[in-house]
Please model this.
Amino acid sequence: MSTTGTTDPEAAGPWGARDGRETAGRLLRAATRSGAHLVAEAAALVQGWAVLADPIAGAVYSTPASAAADGVHAAAAPQEHPYCVQLPAAGAILVLAPAPTTPAEHTGHVAATTAALLEVRGQRAAELRGEQMRLHTTLIRLLLAGHTSVVTETLGRNTTTATETPGRDTATATTGTGTGTGGLCGNRLTHVTVYRLAGADIPAAHQVLWRAVRPSLDPYADACTLLGRLDGELVVAELHHGGDDGRVLRLVSRVSERHHLLAGMAGPLPLAEMPTAHSGAAAARHSATPDRRIVPADAVGSSRLAPLLPTVPYARWAQSVLRPLAPAHRHLLLVWLRTGSKPRAAAALGLSAGTVRARIRELARLLGADLEDATAQAHLLLALRAPGPDDGGNAALPPGPPGPSGPDRLEALPDGLLDTEAVRSWAYGLVGGLEPHLRIALACWLRHHARTAPAAAELHVHRTTLTSWLGRCAEHLAQNLADATVRAELHLALRATRNGPDDPAALPRRGGRTYRRL
Model:
């Protein structure tokens, strides 16, 4: 038989089927080891560099490591890197930069095979993800219940079950939080930083953050991250050795922006204080806005007024007022004042609203004050934010002489505390430029604990009118009136700058229910 016109399929052209089988075999053997080996093998086959770039986590794998930035940039702006081959792979982007001498067919085959193998590895990870997520949620609940030793021992055992996310290059613990370091990981976990995220797109954000956080933490044996959905929120607990390096914060920030979530963070705090961090993060989240999607707990209630007050009389008054309260009582009151309502405080603390109401009534009895009064609440927040033993060495302050009416009371600040030039300048700078009708409306609304309907009824204006005025107040003051701590400071500033009572009866009017501008 003549063989004229026939070709050997394994020797056709500069790159034939034999090369394709050898290439696929090398990539398959690398894939059985890890995602990192797979990407490294792809880089070797194209005689260039290879990067698996995640849109949230950045470079998941990079060979060589110095190519990570170029790979991320190429994935974000492919038109600026026309020499690179890019393919989607398991929720990320595989970027290959071949050598100029590498045939295009060979590069395309390597890219397609590598992307397919990464997808297979991702599917395997997805099969185990549901079980891992449930375990994460259980571990977070154990931390909140105070079982820190159980959690650290679980993380410390760190068995080597292959439960990787797409591209994860090492076998991890059955919890999905370890880094293959035996008992070292659990023993090093002494502190926690907590993030609590809320929004409509929590399920999708959970999946994205799950994939992004775990690979990024893989090289760092001193940190483990737990992610769980509790009561409709996404809770992220980063366990570490006292220092938070900001990696998880950056990832949470990106996810919050992409999925339009609001988040609060608290920590680092010792693991034993996990419940405090958890409630503090929820309180901080209520101060978050679309312009500032992540709010640290230590920034909530941090008063611009407190540093202006005379330190010794301020600290002495706060210690005297708060003396009947235990630390747990103070924490409950602080969360309540930061969140602005008892139901929100209950959700932050993991208690029922009825329990929070009952405890606040008991604390009001201990303090001998009406905690439903807006002024008393503003004073209480000021007292809770006063410098304490850990903030300036005021633990040894002797009690001051009793006033003419007896011991210090929450309703009355010490003489001269707010009557200083610095405080007056602060107050006038904050609310001094408000028009009379806006000032009266704002003061009335604050007295009614930011409830529009009763304030509008007392002012004898429509709720829509009052809402419009409050919007103008927020714009003029450049303040977030939804923040309970901002409202407390505005209440004090209005009281410090008033020349007479901000009485709704004095609201400028011109016939009927309208007002006239002065």
Residues 1-14, 158-186, 215-220, 390-406 have pLDDT under 50 and may be disordered. The longest helix spans residues 104-144.
